[in-house]
Amino acid sequence: MATLTLGAADLVRRRGLRQMRSVALALLVLAAVIYVVTLHRTGGWGYVNAAAEAAMVGALADWFAVTALFRRPLGLPIPHTAIVPTRKDSLAESLEQFVTENFLSEEVVSEKMRTAEVSRRAGEWLAAGNHAERIVAEGARTVGAALPKLGDDDVTAFVSGSLLPRFVKEPLSPIAGHFVESVVDDGAHHALLDLLLVEAHDWLADNRDLLADVVGPRAPRWSPQWVDRMVIDRIHREALTWLADVRDNQTHPARRAIDRLLGQLAHDLQHDPDTMARFEAWKARMLTHPDMGSSLTAVWDAMRTALIDSINDPNSTLRARAVRALQELGQRLQDDESLRAKVDNRAAEAVGYVVRTYGQEIVSVISDTIERWDGREAAARIELHVGRDLQFIRINGTVVGALVGLTIHTVSQLL
Fold first, then answer.
1. How far does CA 413 lie from the centroid of its chain?
2. Whether 26 contacts 36, CB under 8 Å
3. Distance CA 226, CA 237 (A)
4. Which CA distances in Å does 322 have to 47, 61, 318, 325, 327?
5. Which UniProt keywords are given for this protein, alphabetically ordered (predicted)?
């Protein structure tokens, strides 16, 4: 046997192989001894002698067959022997083809993934014990180690070199229009409008003099100042009253007008070429501004700092929410049959894609590995795994040979 680096399991296999070799050899020796002892003896010993002779023939024939797989019997250059060392490459290719056609096919692997109930098992695992906490902890450790390595220069280069140019080229007007349309349909802008009206009313109430500075210079020159002050006071009161009415009345015509304005804007952003062109031009000016890249980097830096602080704190709200989200996902995977079916189908499609795209490279590990082996090493490795079972061929050959020899001798005597 070629010199191999053997692990614990291989050492056990080698002991088993040697034991079975010893048993097979012992049977051959026993048959030879019986043959010699019963040679030329008469009576019933003739039957024993014939059985022993046939047992030796069967044992030697099967010894030759088993040995010829891995080496040349007695070192003789007999044709079609040492099959594994001399034909290991073609055997590896045949094994690779067998595995590809029968095991690593897209249909077989995809169907196995669909029936393995991976989603249900994953859900049970996530919902049980502290598995969700462990996942979040490991993920936090990984993210916490990776985030500091993203320097500001790298982020700025990515934002300025890849992200912003991509957004400049990508039409965003339909997306913005659809967003505004959704906001208006859901009434999500009303809270912002309420805030703006409150702030506008309070600001105007505190800035009467600023209103006078704006309106006063536009009064006629012949108008007395006391008349101007009365007009400004009246405008100030009416503006405050109007803002208060709009603020407090949810069905005020001004509010409905704003809704119609936003609805029209949403429609124009999606369908009006002029509005879409103006929006895209404004977007391009904003995104190509020299300070945009550094501003986004500053935002990222602040977010990164806050994120690192949150994930490094075992008691942070972020980590607690992540744990709850994983546990809820695990429970849903157990209870929601449609979700399980969808996840299993997606998993099957993903595995099928991997097999379809990279299956040949995966299974080529078999032939590539065996081709790198020395011929004798390949024979030694294979014999180590299957040799013990092959020794039963020798044992069976000895026993069957004896029975066949006894049968033939008996029939000869009867004839």
1. 73
2. no
3. 17
4. 82, 68, 6, 5, 9
5. Membrane, Transmembrane, Transmembrane helix
Please state the φ and ψ torsions of residue 315, each to the nearest 5 degrees: -100, 15
Per-residue pLDDT reduced to its tens digit, 111-150: 888 888 888 889 899 888 788 888 988 888 888 888 777 7
The tens digit of pLDDT for each residue in 62-74 reads 888 888 888 888 7
Cα–Cα distances in Å, from 108 out to 27, 101, 361? Answer: 45, 10, 18
Distance between CA 9 and CA 5 in Å, rounded? 11
Instruction: Give the C-alpha separation, 405 to 53, whole Å.
Output: 7
Q: Do residues 44 and 409 make contact, with C-beta atoms less than 8 angstroms apart?
A: no
Residue 84, judged by CB atoms within 10 A of its CB (0-12, 13-18, 19+), counts as buried
**Token pair 């022993």 in the structure block, residue:** 52
Report the alpha-carbon distance of residue 318 to residue 316 in Å, rounded.
5
Q: Tokens for 274?
A: 């002029």
Q: Which amino acid is at 101?
A: E
In 147-224, alpha helices (H): 152-158, 164-169, 173-186, 190-206, 208-215
Q: Which DSSP state fits 64?
A: H
Whether 333 contacts 122, CB under 8 Å:
yes
Do the beta carbons of residue 4 and residue 380 sit within 8 Å? yes
